[in-house]
Amino acid sequence: MRITLPNRNRITVLLAAGLALLNARAQYSYTTLGSPYTQDFNSLGTSATAALPTGWRMNNVAGNLDTDWALLGTTTTLAYGTTGTGVVTGTSTGGAINWANGITGSANWRKGNWQGYQKADLDAEIDMESNQLISQVNANFLQDVGAWIVAPRQFIVEVSTDGKQFTRVYSGENFLPIEDRKVQVRNVEAKFSPVTARYVRIKAIQYGKLPAWHEGAGGDTHLFIDEIEIR
Hints:
This protein has no helices and 11 strands. It has strands at 2-5, 12-19, 22-29, 37-40, 56-58, 115-118, 122-143, 154-160, 167-173, 184-205, 222-230.
């Protein structure tokens, strides 16, 4: 799997993923406009002690809630692979680097498992490494208006076979009204006619500024996303 986050603003992004009972985190500071951040995780192989990519660290003690990035380990402790307990599937029960473990972020976002953005839209490109027939992209978004977390104003899906020329196959908007103060998870199902593609680019557009009636009026909303699924 390879994920690319095109850079449109100078920002520091904390990437967090819920991996089995462990936590993996990375810190990356965008310093050059127009220069994308790309991380390829295939190099981890199947070793139970594989070194994580530069900038990535892992909590090597199950159940340890230590979230200090500087104190986390730089190697894995469980196997990552395509067979056995480390198999990467939606129903796998093992593997420290299991990106498809099906663990989703809940409405209690303080438990983690969400990726958050502020003052920047989500613009991510996923390389599936081969052309595949797809017809749907799912993503979960959190809304907690009191905490400035608002569902996206718009969600866009584009596909490509060469990573250069992209075609828009889905665009949706107004998934939850900002007046809805219930803390909730909104699953967005972007369905489109079957198309062959290797690269999938997803864009989630921030709501923007909080409205005048909000206690934080004028502040920049946060965008929380989790569990992107391509079918």
